[in-house]
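Notes from hallway chat w/ T.B., transcribed later so I don't forget. T.B. wanted the structure written out for a chain they're using in a teaching module, and asked if we could keep both sequence and structure tokens in one place. Agreed to drop them here.
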Amino acid sequence: MLMCLSSQQSIIWVGGAVLRDHAGKFLFSCNEGLEGLPVPELAEAIAARSALTITRDKGFQKISLVSDCLSLVQRISSPVQDRSTTGMVIGDIKNLMTDFDSCSVKFSSRYLIVIAHNLARSPEALVCKFSADVIPEIIRDELNL
């Protein structure tokens, strides 16, 4: 399960993603600060696109993308071409999803994806980070480790 979320820190949006396997085991996390975005949904979409790209490049084939942004989930799920500000990124996400054997997108309220939320709100989140070997301190408690 790939959980994606964005959070605003001052004038910078931060995207965070956590990948867990079917049993809930931590596989990797990533986060990145994004400046100059006009709408929060665009930050969510960029976080999802980045997470899917990393997941594909790492060789995963069955993905469930989970976001707390209902409009993003609806736009990705829609067969209609999105012509909004976020549309190009939505198109990239749809194209990336075809690279997997199975890739679904689901909505979840924020409390269910608290791990990605904490990662995005981390003071260290303004620097692009990828972690596969060491679980970031900010999310260890939520992973029950």
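Follow-up for T.B.: The chain has a mean pLDDT of 78. Might be a good example for the class.
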